[in-house]
Design brief:
The complex is a heterodimer of chains A (157) and B (192). Chain A has 157 residues and is an alpha/beta fold. Chain A has a domain of 103 residues: Nucleotidyltransferase, domain 5. Chain A is built from four helices and eight strands; from the N terminus they run H-E-E-E-H-E-E-H-E-H-E-E. In chain A, the strands form two sheets. Chain A has a five-stranded mixed beta sheet, covered by helices on one side. In chain A, strand 4 and strand 5 form a beta hairpin. The longest helix of chain A is centred in the N-terminal third of the chain and has 15 residues. With 192 residues, chain B is an alpha/beta fold. Chain B has a domain of 125 residues. In chain B, the strands form two sheets. Chain B has a five-stranded mixed beta sheet with strand order 4-3-2-7-8, covered by helices on one side. A two-stranded antiparallel ribbon of chain B has the order 5-6. The chains are: A alpha/beta (157), B alpha/beta (192). Chains A and B meet through helix 1, strand 2, strand 6, helix 4 and strand 7 of A and helix 1, strand 1 and helix 3 of B.
């Protein structure tokens, strides 16, 4: 008889679950590192335009966001369908922007202020008037570094 | 000696799963990116008179966008697809044509003397222009500048602009300045 012949009845061994926590922890760390927790719920619908010459926003903590677009269906009864500005968690007027910028600056360290960027997340069907007014306000508030948020498109399609 | 009892680790996976699910739902994976621009400084309020010398007609590349998203470049209607080539021609002026901008010979470190263009791109939009179209045009203008820079850096350093060292980048930026100026928008036609 062969030495290697197994004796007794064969049973499929149960898969060891001892390494399951390790696997899950690995996934957990991945998501914890890549995560940026959504801090605002969007009140306006924003579909950013496409562009090719885009650059990434490096330091997310230094970015302030201004959203412009038509209100989401839930609010369109009250606020209409014309594009509106959203700052933080509420609708705002153009004249609120300098205060918003000042508040954003106050929340950062002084050394970081020169590197702050304002990201304009504007719906592609918005008329330029509102964008022009926002730009004027940003110039008045000396928040000159802006980023027109856009999606990457394939160049030379 | 008493043996310390082992902490059961069977529920570890459950705890980890709970955390995992929280982070998965809270995650937004989209990378924020966009066209980067720097707005011009607000002029000081006491400065009424504009004492900068007027820019010559040939040095200005006028790009107009109207309320119906039509594009007019140097006085003629144009499709966005052709804007990039036209802008590149304006920025480089390869054949020294009279109507294209003048150049000024400047000494630039790493590049030697270089014919720096005096051209300025002037972009004006209407209040009724669509934002998507505006970004489209901005993108083409920035793309034209980037392409010209890339061509120069490939010729001089044999590398793409993005791969250069910071001194080399600065030299290229000096040689090919990106002067896109935006005029105050006007309401010309169409409803607000």
């Amino acid at each position: 008889m062969s030495k290697f012949k197994e004796s007794g009845k064969k049973e499929t061994p149960a898969i060891s679950t001892a390494s399951l926590p390790d696997i899950v922890f690995m996934l957990l760390f991945f998501f914890m590192v890549t995560t940026t927790i959504r801090d605002v719920s969007l009140l306006v619908k924003v579909k950013t335009p496409v562009a090719t010459e885009i650059s990434k926003l490096e330091k997310k903590s230094l970015v302030s966001y201004i959203y412009v677009g038509p209100p989401v269906p839930k609010y369109s009864k009250i606020f209409g369908t014309e594009p509106r500005i959203q700052l933080n968690d509420q609708f705002a007027k153009v004249s609120d922007i300098p205060d918003f910028i000042l508040a954003e600056r106050a929340a950062r360290e002084e050394a970081e202020i020169p590197f702050m960027v304002t990201s304009l997340k504007v719906d592609e069907f918005t008329k330029m008037q509102i964008v022009g007014e926002i730009k004027q306000e940003l110039r008045k508030a000396a928040a000159l570094h802006i980023n027109y948020s856009s999606r990457k498109s394939v160049p030379n399609k | 000696m008493r043996k310390t009892p082992e902490i059961p680790s069977a529920s570890m996976a459950d705890i980890a799963f709970m955390l995992l699910i929280f982070f998965i739902t809270a995650t937004s994976m989209d990378v924020d990116s966009g066209l980067e621009r720097v707005l011009p400084q607000m002029p000081p309020e006491n400065q009424e008179q504009d004492d900068t010398p007027p820019i010559k007609e040939r040095n200005v590349f006028s790009v107009l966008l109207d309320a119906n998203n039509r594009l007019m470049v140097e006085g003629e209607l144009m499709r966005v697809e052709y804007l990039r080539e036209k802008t590149k021609e304006f920025l480089t002026n390869p054949n020294n044509i009279e109507s294209l901008p003048e150049t000024k010979t400047t000494e630039i470190p790493l590049l030697g003397s270089f014919e720096v263009t005096k051209g300025v791109i002037s972009l004006r939009n209407d209040h009724g222009t669509q934002y998507g179209m505006y970004i489209n045009v901005q993108n083409e203008l920035v793309a034209a500048v980037n392409e010209v820079r890339n061509e120069l850096s490939t010729r001089k350093f044999g590398k793409r602009y993005d791969d250069l060292t910071s001194e080399q980048k600065e030299a290229i930026r000096d040689a090919i300045p990106s002067r896109i100026s935006e005029a105050e928008p006007k309401t010309i036609g169409g409803k607000k």
